[in-house]
Structure formats: structure tokens, C-alpha cells
Amino acid sequence: MKNVTDSFVSLGHWPSAGSWGFNTDILATNPINLSVVLGVLIYFGKGVLNDLLDNRKQRILSTIQNSEELRRGAIEQLERARALLRKVEIEADEYRMNGYSEIEREKVNLINAACDSLERLENYKNETLHFEQQRAINQVRQRIFQQALQGALGTLNSCLNSELHFRTISANIGILRAMEEITD
């Protein structure tokens, strides 16, 4: 403490300053100035500093509370979104499975319809072939009958004379009358 008082007392040793003057010794005056300034700042600035720190503390706490509320809201939204996603995935799986089963049913129906059409076409083809065979057989029979009839007529005409011809016609007419009497 002696140094502190000596720095004030040493003002009288300066020849140019007289009884009052400035102490230019930085090492001796600086701690005193700093202690005075700090003392004034602490005394007067304590309330302002406390208010600033309290305001800062309140803003930080309100920011933390808002962040917590936002985090909780985000977590709730995330859970709702996850639940909705699970629901949509379940519905998508159901639609997919229903779609697959519907596709399988349609596939089976198309295969059955194609088989039925093929069977009908096969039957139609077989009927057409049978019809054409019968028609060809009938045409061949008609030609053979016509040729045989022409051959028989030719043979008869060459072999028969008019009297033999007349007797054959009379015999056939007799057979027809006998058949007519039987049916009546």
C-alpha cells in the first residue's frame, strides 16, 4: 500500500509540476485506475449486467423451450407420418394382392375362354370336314350311279328289243301296284 500512497505523494518531487501534477509512471498509476474503473463498473453496472444476463438467460430458456416444443411436435408429426406410411403400405399390399389375385382370375378366365374357343373351332372344323367328306362321297356316289345307270341303259338299249322292254315295264308296274295295295 505504501507504493500506492507514494505515487500520490511523489507528485511533490516533480520540479515543473509544483504542488500538483500528473504522474507519468504507467506501472504505478495503471493498477489504481483499473481498480477505480472496475469498482465503478461493478457498483453501477451490476444491475445492468444482471438485467442483461437475466434477459439473455430468459431468451436462452425460451429458445430451449421452443426447441423442445418444436422437437415434440416434429416427433409427433413423424410418428403420425410413420403410422400413415404403415397404413398406406398395408393398403398398397392389399391392393397389390387383390390385383394379383384379380390378374390371376382374369388370366384363368382368358385361358378358359381361349380353350373354349379352340374347342368350338375344333368342333366346327371337324363338322366342316365331315360335311365336306359326306358331300364328296355323295358326289362320287351320284357320278357312279349316273355312270352305272348310263351303262345299264346303254346295255339295256343295246340288248332289249321293244317287246322285252314292254314286259319289263309291265312287271315293274305290277310290283308297284302290289306295294300300293300292301300299304293301303
UniProtKB/TrEMBL annotation:
Annotated InterPro entries: ATP_synth_b/b'su_bac/chlpt
Q: Which residues cross the membrane?
A: 32-49
Listed under GO cellular component are:
proton-transporting ATP synthase complex
Q: Does the keyword Cell inner membrane apply?
A: no
Record carries keyword Membrane: yes
Q: Name one GO biological process term.
A: proton motive force-driven ATP synthesis
Q: How does it sit in the membrane?
A: Single-pass membrane protein
Q: Where is the signal peptide?
A: none
Write down the CDD domains for this protein, in alphabetical order.
Answer: ATP-synt_Fo_b (cd06503)
The Swiss-Prot or TrEMBL record annotates one GO molecular function as: proton transmembrane transporter activity
Identify the main location.
membrane
Location(s), subcellular: Membrane
Coiled-coil stretches are 64-98
Alphabetically sorted, this entry's keywords are: ATP synthesis, CF(0), Chloroplast, Coiled coil, Hydrogen ion transport, Ion transport, Membrane, Plastid, Thylakoid, Transmembrane, Transmembrane helix, Transport
Membership in a protein family: Belongs to the ATPase B chain family.
Q: What does this protein do?
A: F(1)F(0) ATP synthase produces ATP from ADP in the presence of a proton or sodium gradient. F-type ATPases consist of two structural domains, F(1) containing the extramembraneous catalytic core and F(0) containing the membrane proton channel, linked together by a central stalk and a peripheral stalk. During catalysis, ATP synthesis in the catalytic domain of F(1) is coupled via a rotary mechanism of the central stalk subunits to proton translocation.
Q: What protein am I looking at?
A: ATP synthase CF0 subunit I
Gene name of the encoded protein: atpF
